[in-house]
Design a protein that fits this description.
heterodimer, A: 295 residues, 2 domains, 2 strands, B: 362 residues, alpha+beta, Rossmann fold, OB fold (Dihydrolipoamide Acetyltransferase, E2P), five-stranded antiparallel beta sheet, 8 helices
């Protein structure tokens, strides 16, 4: 009797206990699905594999290999560059769409927002295949161009290269960029734009001096949302990237698959996480510097 | 010789024309605003005063009529091309810029040397007593300070006309009263034409050179504050500006100076003859409370019973039942010991000059 009352009383009295019990479902899930796997991944990256035998002794041999064989650093650098291009392309494509919905659409904004997310109701894999059909040797673009007589031979450079990867990823992640930018544009008080016009600025300068700076939080959020997950993507490069469009994620999957070297795959994955974290930190630091300068 | 700053000629504005949500915000409004004038557009919300201001600023397009600014047609000019600046109701300060950057916003496009811009910013900020706060962000300022920055920003490009859209409505009472005087003084110092929109009649009376009283998209009356207050042209204006007693009745006799009017079943009131009245006309008489003198019951021709008292500190508003279904509201000051001179149900004398009682056309 008293003990259950005491437990109950403890929860009523303690702010922390109540806080933790509210957090518990998320916390348990995160620990099980995120923290433990990452610890296991980091631990395994220090193991070694020879043939079929995995040895659980501490060793830096995987990291040594990572820095010695140029291919790893090269592919990692290229992946960061590709993701950077994807992020840039996505922002360029997403901003006008977000701007349109925020400022030009007067009625039924919700319908527009739902329409923007419609492509995401189909599987990611299907969307990548769709681009394969679009850009392929006998694909929509080539047969279209031949049909209207612009080219005689199908263009070979559309598919199986870096450009195809950038294009496919930019399309795939568009909604993740449109929505945060839309939110930050929507929050801008329309009277600020009237004030800018009233003070003599035309539409372009008003945009550059008022709308763009005020939407930067959305742009920054969008760039992180697109950049971070695309670095490790392996489906798109595998399907549309060919040999030149290979990314770091493909190396990791190879190590966990055919290569059958899980410790090496873990080491590559850890290096990938570290470099993404570094890039993001430098990016955010640069932004804070620019902000300070403008004051 | 006064120059006309803004000439509004038969301007109409319909929102959503042609649809079932069409709203006539302005109906053939004509008025002129003189250069170097403090002009107020006064009216209840939805009367069209803000619409008129936005038409002058260029944020809305007229449906009919034309607006001339210093004899120039401005219909085809973008807001950015019009030599007018606006102080917005909620200030619309740029949150990502400092106070000084906000004030410099309208100057930078003029391609002036930075030293000149800085000098102008400093001059305008000291004009509104904000010189020390140039490095602050808008969100670090109080409402009154934001108000001053908004004023400074609009004044910095030296507009020919300053448009003010209910700029004091978000401030508390004391601040609002201080800003009234400052605005008026600022207008005199700068010599810029101010067009001030408000729904606060006290504000309008205190600051304006002339007032346009608006209702339902039409101008009811234009005139100096004393004109509007003392000689309202209709019941709406008399009612909207200040407190008023209205008496509905019928004219029973007319002579040169005075008309006599029967109110209720048998009470006769004499009022100033404003011309064009004849026996039998149905009219409304109006009498400002402060024109009535209340005193202890004596020889005065009219007496009444105190029906209600509203204590206001420096004075009290008395509702006096005059019999015959007639009630008059009047004011009395508290006595020196702080007590009110009359109590509820006291019988008191009610005096006023017949000239203070005016006839409004019905």
């Amino acid at each position: 009797m008293t003990s259950s009352g005491g437990l109950r009383g403890y929860f009523v009295r303690s702010e922390n206990a109540r806080g933790f019990s509210l957090l518990a479902p998320t916390l348990i899930l995160l620990v099980l699905m995120m923290v433990i796997p990452i610890i296991m991944l980091v631990a395994r990256s220090f193991w070694t594999q020879s043939g079929m035998i995995e040895t659980a002794d501490f060793s830096l041999v995987n990291y040594q290999m990572f820095f010695e064989k140029k291919i790893y650093l090269y592919v990692l650098g290229k992946s960061l560059l590709i993701s950077g291009s994807v992020t840039f392309a996505t922002l360029i494509l997403a901003y006008p769409a977000a701007y349109f919905v925020a400022f030009r659409v007067k009625k039924n904004k919700l319908i527009w927002l739902i329409l923007i997310t419609v492509p995401f109701w189909t599987s990611y894999l299907l969307r990548v295949f769709a681009w394969k059909l679009m850009l392929g040797y006998n694909g929509v673009v080539n047969s279209g161009l031949i049909g209207i007589g612009i080219i005689d031979e199908p263009l070979g450079f559309l598919l199986h290269n870096v450009n195809a990867v950038v294009l496919t990823l930019a399309h795939a992640w568009a909604a993740f960029a449109i929505l945060p930018i839309y939110v930050s544009l929507e929050k801008i008080d329309k009277s600020l734009l009237e004030a800018a016009a009233d003070l003599g600025e035309g539409p372009i300068r008003s945009f550059l001096r008022v709308t763009l700076p005020l939407s930067m939080p959305g742009v920054i959020a969008a760039s992180l949302l697109v950049f971070i997950p695309t670095v490790g993507d392996y489906v798109t490069p595998k399907l549309v990237g060919g040999s030149s469009g290979i990314m770091i994620g493909n190396l990791v999957t190879n190590m966990f698959g055919r290569g059958n070297n899980w410790p090496m795959g873990s080491a590559i994955a850890v290096m990938m996480m570290i470099s993404i974290t570094l890039v993001v930190c430098i990016y955010l630091w640069l932004i804070s510097q620019v902000k300070k300068r403008s004051n | 010789m006064t120059t006309v700053a803004i000439d509004i000629r038969g301007v109409s504005k319909v929102y959503n024309p042609g649809s079932n949500q069409a709203v006539q915000a302005l109906d053939t409004v004509s008025l002129t605003i003189n250069d170097n004038e403090f002009f107020t557009l006064l009216g209840p919300s939805g009367c069209g005063k803000t619409t008129l201001l936005r038409l002058i600023a260029g944020f809305e397009q007229v449906t009919g009529g034309e607006i001339m600014l210093f004899d120039e047609e401005i219909e085809n000019l973008e807001p950015s091309q019009r030599p007018v600046n606006t102080v917005f109701q909620h200030y619309a300060l740029f949150p990502h810029m400092t106070v000084a950057q906000n004030v410099a916003f309208g100057l930078e496009r003029l391609k002036k040397p930075q030293a000149e811009i800085d000098a102008t910013v400093e001059r305008v900020l000291s004009l509104v007593k904000m010189k020390e706060l140039g490095d602050r962000r808008p969100n670090q300022l109080s409402g009154g300070q934001q108000q001053r920055v908004a004023l400074a920003r609009a004044l910095a490009p030296s507009p020919k006309v300053l448009l003010l859209d209910e700029p004091l409505s978000a401030l508390d009472l004391k601040l609002r009263q201080n800003m009234r005087e400052e605005l008026k003084q600022l207008q005199r110092e700068t010599g810029i034409t101010f067009v001030f929109v408000t729904h606060d009649q006290e504000e309008a009376l205190a600051m304006s050179d002339r007032i346009a009283v608006m209702s339902n998209g039409e101008v009811q009356q234009i005139g100096a504050p004393t004109d509007i207050y003392e000689h309202p042209v209709n019941r709406f204006v008399a009612d909207f500006i200040g407190d008023t007693n209205f008496l509905d009745g019928e004219i029973t006799s007319v002579n040169d100076d005075l008309v006599t009017c029967r109110v209720g079943s048998e009470s006769l009131f004499e009022a100033a003859n404003s011309g064009n009245h004849s026996v039998g006309d149905q009219v409304t008489l109006f009498l400002r409370p402060e024109k009535i003198t209340l005193s202890a019951a004596g020889d005065a021709s009219r007496q009444g019973r105190v029906a209600n008292i509203v204590y206001l500190g420096n004075q009290a508003a008395y509702t006096v039942d005059m019999g015959d279904g007639i009630e008059l509201t009047a004011q009395a000051r508290p006595r020196e010991d702080g007590n009110l001179p009359f109590a509820t149900n006291d019988t008191i004398s009610v005096d006023y000059s017949a000239r203070a009682l005016r006839v409004l056309a019905k």
